[in-house]
Each structure stands twice: as C-alpha cells, then as structure tokens.
C-alpha cells in the first residue's frame, strides 16, 4: 500500500472542466449532494476546493457558505487548505469534492478540516475509485499526466479508515458511475441498471457522508463501601449472692 504522504508535485484541479468526463462526474455528485444537504442544519458551511465551489447548494438550510480556493472565480476566500483561517469548531458542514486525490498530505488535510468542524457536524466528500474501470485507466501511458488519472486515487475503504481514526461515523458510503457516459447517457443508465450488482465495488466515483462524533470523558467515581465495624458480643450476666 502506498503511503498517504507524498513528495511528488501534483496538479491541483480548480474546475470540473479540467477533468475528463468532468461534466458527467459533477452531475452524479450533485445528484447525491441534493439528497443530503436538506438534512443538514446549522449556521455555516465550508466548501473546500474549486471543485466543491462549483457544486450548487442553494437549496440547503445553511445560508452562510464559505468557498475556499486559490484559482476558482467562485471563491470568496483565498486560503491554504492545510491552514484554514478560522477558529476551532466554526462550521456545521464541510464539502470536500475530489480533493484528497490531489493532496500531498491527506491526513493533515483531514485533521485541519476536523479542527474547524463542530461536534456532530457533517463531512461530505467524494473521489475516484481506483478499482473501477475509470481508475484502471491510469495504467494507460498517455493518460498518466491528465486529470483525473494523475491523481493518487485512494480507495473508499481506506478513506473510511482515516475518518474512523478521527472519530467520524460513516452515515453513507456508496459507489456509482460504472462507465463514464457523457454522450450516450441513456445507454449508460441502462448499462448501470443491468450491472447494478457491480456498483458497490467497481463504481467510478465514491460518495461518503460522515458525522463527527465526540464523546465526553467523565471520570467514574469509585463507590467506597465502608466495612461494618467489629463489636464484641455482649454477655448478660449477674454477680452477687442474690443470684439464683
């Protein structure tokens, strides 16, 4: 298994137009995001990365939404994802679309997101499944330097383990999009329905919804039981000549 941290420079995507089949991937992720965002409540939402900024979330109950990136024109804050300029526990929901695949230190990125998340906050993230037909395409030589195949492509099970170490409960984890079908979408939908049994393992994209759980540590006071004091048995007797 390749280490999570890498010294190799990665091309950081800031728009779905840079992706091969980017419109197809964005529409699939948007569909699942539309199902989950109405269930989230709070005051502040963080959309980290240019790909997250281009996902619409206007129907969400959270009105104040912060978009962070360095190049995407939809951003309203320009900052480094490893050093977010916010206080601890500032956001109720964080959206992280296909960013772990292009992070040189995904553990650090997740820890920084965890720092600004409130207790019981929601983290919604997506990525490319390396065991899918789309992920295997990175083995083709002329695709190695193109998006999304130049990314690192961590498996959803590995991402789930990372979130578990940060004490996140996985609410949903699913894979979808067996074959990228940009032009013939009707045929693509029919093929996915026919091969629906393969989607959990070979879907091109994964979608994870996790919730931060914090359990307070309360010391349990020992129950001291006092032993009964020993007392001699009393003897009732009389002395004197008048005793019978």
From TrEMBL:
Any GO MF annotation of the entry: methyltransferase activity
Keyword Zinc-finger (UniProt): no
Pfam families (alphabetical): Methyltransf_11 (PF08241)
Domain Methyltransferase type residue range list: 74-125
Keywords: Methyltransferase, Transferase
Domain of life: Bacteria
GO BP annotation list: methylation
Name of this protein: Class I SAM-dependent methyltransferase
């Amino acid at each position: 298994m390749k280490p999570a941290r890498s010294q190799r420079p990665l091309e950081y995507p800031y728009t779905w137009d840079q992706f091969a089949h980017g419109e197809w991937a964005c529409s699939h992720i948007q569909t699942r995001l539309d199902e989950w965002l109405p269930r989230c409540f709070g005051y502040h939402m963080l959309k980290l990365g240019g790909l997250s900024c281009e996902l619409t979330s206007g129907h969400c109950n959270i009105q104040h939404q912060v978009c962070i990136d360095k190049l995407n024109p939809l951003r309203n804050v320009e900052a480094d994802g490893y050093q977010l300029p916010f206080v601890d526990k500032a956001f109720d929901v964080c959206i992280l679309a296909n960013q772990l695949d292009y992070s040189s230190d995904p553990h650090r990125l997740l820890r920084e997101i965890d720092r600004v998340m409130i207790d019981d906050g929601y983290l919604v993230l997506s990525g490319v499944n390396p065991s899918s037909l789309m992920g295997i395409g990175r083995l083709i030589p002329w695709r190695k330097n193109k998006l999304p195949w130049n990314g690192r492509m961590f498996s959803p099970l590995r991402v789930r383990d990372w979130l578990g170490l940060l004490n996140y409960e996985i609410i949903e984890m699913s894979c979808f999009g067996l074959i990228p079908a940009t032009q013939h979408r009707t045929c693509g939908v029919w093929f996915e329905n026919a091969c629906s049994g393969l989607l959990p393992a070979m879907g091109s994209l994964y979608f994870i919804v996790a919730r931060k759980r914090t359990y307070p540590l309360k010391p349990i006071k020992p129950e001291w039981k006092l032993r009964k004091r020993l007392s001699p048995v009393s003897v009732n007797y009389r002395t004197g000549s008048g005793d019978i």
